[in-house]
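Subject: sequence -> structure tokens, single chain

Hey, anyone have a minute? Need the predicted structure for the following. Not urgent.
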Amino acid sequence: MDNLKPEFRKKNMTNIRSKDTKIELKVRSALHKKGFRFRKNVKDLPGKPDIVLPKLKTIIFIDSCFWHKCPYHYKQPKSNIKYWKPKIERNVKRAKEVNKQLRNDGWNVIRIWEHSIKKNFDKCIESIINKIHKHS
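Reply:
Had a minute. Here:
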């Protein structure tokens, strides 16, 4: 059962950011310090990627464990299941479709889980950079 009143739940959900999250800012800052130049939240590409490196034809998505159904950390909400289950499933399906479309268009697509960034930030940045160089 949801332990928040509807008005507080609504306020809570509206405060969840879809772009410029702390994790995104941290990743972008690290990549910028390493000399990478990018665009952010590009609306004219499928999935509105978090980070786009146009010259390297690489796209980076930072996926939230909740919104993208992390196999390790996702917990199905206990209330309003009829709403949440299909919504999360659509997110997962859409991510796969976006990956396929972008790869067909020649993009290198990198998806990073938020828990990976939180757990070992330096290793995660190193992994991103290796995947960028491997593709270019």
